[in-house]
Amino acid sequence: MPQLNPQTVFEQERDRLRKLHPTPTEIPSCLSLFDDYISCSVIRSQIKSLYRFGHRPECSPKFEEFKFCLSLKSLHPEERREVWIQRRAEWWARKRLDKSSEDVWDIRTEPLQAFPKPITDEMFE
Predict the structure, then answer these.
(1) Mean pLDDT, residues 84-98 taken together
(2) How far is 117 from 47, CA to CA, in rounded Å?
(3) Residue 98 half-sphere exposure, CB side, CA atoms within 13 Å?
(4) ∠ CA(89), CA(9), CA(84), 5° rounding?
């Protein structure tokens, strides 16, 4: 797998998020982030995670997002959008650069030659 440049990945993610969230009203509100945290913390989510994965869900990142949102309240909406996009772009860039279950496979640029093998009469003898 080719080595990715962290700065390039960050810029790609930042540009993508700017297009995805063109106005300050497009970024999540503190109330929606708080709802995400609470829904992670309720007993239903706890039991479902224990059943599926054998451990409780990790809700602290959701709480950190909520606290980060509260820290942005004093900023102008456009400035708040830029700071939020910066943080999310860093998060997505880290996620893209870290190991993944998809790293096992190399991306093929050309199909395999003579695959599948042509069926011949010799195969049946």
Answers:
(1) 93
(2) 50
(3) 6
(4) 10
